[in-house]
Amino acid sequence: MAELPVGCGPITWRPYQRQDEAAWPEERILAEIAEAGYDGAPASVHPTRSTEETLALYRELGLRVAPGYLGAPLWQADQRESIVERAKRDSALMRAGGCDALYVAAGGAEYTAASGKTRRQVSGQVTAEDGLTDEEMKAFAGTLNEVGAATLAEGVRSCFHNHVGTVIETRAEFERLLALADPATVFLGPDTGHIAWAGDDPVAFCRDYAARIKTIHVKDIDQAVAARGRAEGWDYGGFSANGIWLEPGSGAIDFPAILADLEAAGLDGWIIVETDVTPLSSALESATVSRNYLRTIGL
Q1: Which end is more exposed in the chain, N or C (fewer Cβ atoms within 10 Å of the end residue's Cβ)?
Q2: Angle at CA of residue 92, ends 86 and 94, nearest 5°
Q3: pLDDT beyond 90 at 1
Q4: Does the pLDDT of residue 4 top 90, yes or no?
Q5: How large is the C-alpha radius of gyration of the chain?
Q6: Cα–Cα distance between 238 and 254 in angstroms, integer?
Q7: Residue 208 near residue 181 (C-beta atoms within 8 A)
């Protein structure tokens, strides 16, 4: 496997932050990510800290800036201007940090579809009746295309990111969007765990779209928990509370196959580890186990 940069997202630490925010400042989380052996971590625009202060913090800890995350209601046409401005701001930070990619994702957990259910309620069990209308999907693609053009002007590729519990969860929804998205400005940054949780095959997805994938979130899931949750009709929180998430290599996802296909397509971007809720004793242990596993498959 080529020498690709490997980063770790801070999401595994979020439950600890919620319990005691003062005990878990960003600096401590980033230090643990560095301790676990990662090249970098995602960065985002800070409400009170300057870009140079953010970059200085990363340098101090020996971390590189990995792709940040822009989540927004892209299907709401009246929000387009503000979303594009946010994208410009975020891509300027990426450029300053030497990173050439930005994850772009939809929100929509409380989006109520024609089925009468919210996307949070139908997580992992989406039907066609739960999707965006054609008009909303057209607006979504239009905003995404403008976001992609704006970030590319900064030398940063917008990489669309799927997520269970949002309005783009399944492969079918992804493909509705991609039929309208401009391939010259909109790239892909898929999440393997969310693809699997949605009921699709992450190996097949990454193989079929390898040429457009510029960065990827590597997550694993417990397929038995996913099956039980679908059968019992859990919402997003039900899956999470019952242990849907596993460290990469601990579940059924074939990461060597995914990475082989991406390498063959010339991937040169970031591999980002995330375990939303770890079954292990700490976020640091989770991050370390994940990093050690990736080393065994050549990363």
Answers
A1: N
A2: 105
A3: no
A4: yes
A5: 18
A6: 25
A7: no
CA 269 from chain center: how many Å? 14
Tens digits of residue pLDDT in 162-211: 999 999 999 999 999 999 999 999 999 999 999 999 999 999 999 999 99
- CA distance readout (Å), 280 to 117, 247, 284: 33, 9, 9
For the chain, give every domain's residue range.
6-296
- CA dist., res. 200 & res. 277, Å (int): 21
Token duo for residue 55:
């970059």
pLDDT at position 2: 59
DSSP states of 170-201 as a string?
SHHHHHHHHTTS-TTTEEE--BHHHHHHTTS-
Q: Which of 235, 67, 259, 70 is nearest to 164 (CA)?
A: 235
Answer whether 0.90 is exceeded by the pTM. yes
288, 267, 217: which is closest to 3 by C-alpha?
267
Which token pair is 25? 């400042």
> The domain 6-296 belongs to what CATH superfamily?
Divalent-metal-dependent TIM barrel enzymes (3.20.20.150)
* Paired strand residues for 186: 158
Amino acid at 91: S
